[in-house]
């Protein structure tokens, strides 16, 4: 599996599992906590892969790399969405 598909799938699955876990939590289902834990683990996998991708990019400078890393660490899902939707195309190597 290439990194493009891996990053896209890990982010998509983390969002999906988190939403499903939240719905299960609202309904007081017993599987809510494990589903949300899986979503969190997938988000951590995405963050690690995205930080690795940003650090190895030669298209952006050190300041922007620093800002992406801070965004991933403190605002994981939000910065992940921005990264996947708009910034990833110009950051990855062609």
Question: Which labels suit this protein?
Answer:
single chain; 94 residues; mainly alpha; elongated
What does this protein look like?
- The protein is mainly α.
- It has one domain.
- It is built from 4 helices and no strands.
- The chain has helices at residues 3-26, 32-55, 62-74, 76-91.
- α2 (32-55) packs antiparallel against α3, α2 (32-55) packs parallel to α4 and α3 (62-74) packs antiparallel against α4.
- The longest helix is centred in the first third of the chain and has 24 residues, at 3-26.
- C-alpha termini separation: 17 Å
Shape descriptor reads elongated
Average pLDDT, rounded to a whole number, is 89
SS strand fraction = under 5%
Low-pLDDT parts are: none
Multimeric state? single chain
| Rg value | 15 Å
Number of extended strands: 0
SSE order, one letter for each helix or strand: HHHH
What is the percent of helical residues?
over 70%
Give me the number of helical elements.
Answer: 4
Number of domains: 1
In terms of topology, how is this protein built?
Blueprint: H1 3-26, H2 32-55, H3 62-74, H4 76-91
Summarize the structure in short.
This protein is 82% helix and 0% strand.
């Amino acid at each position: 599996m290439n990194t493009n598909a891996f990053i896209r799938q890990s982010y998509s699955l983390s969002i999906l599992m988190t939403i499903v876990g939240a719905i299960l939590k609202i309904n007081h289902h017993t599987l809510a906590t494990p589903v949300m834990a899986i979503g969190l683990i997938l988000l951590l996998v995405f963050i690690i892969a995205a930080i690795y991708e940003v650090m190895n990019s030669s298209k952006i400078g050190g300041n922007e790399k620093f800002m992406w890393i801070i965004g991933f660490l403190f605002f994981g899902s939000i910065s992940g969405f921005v990264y996947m939707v708009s910034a990833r195309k110009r950051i990855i190597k062609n």
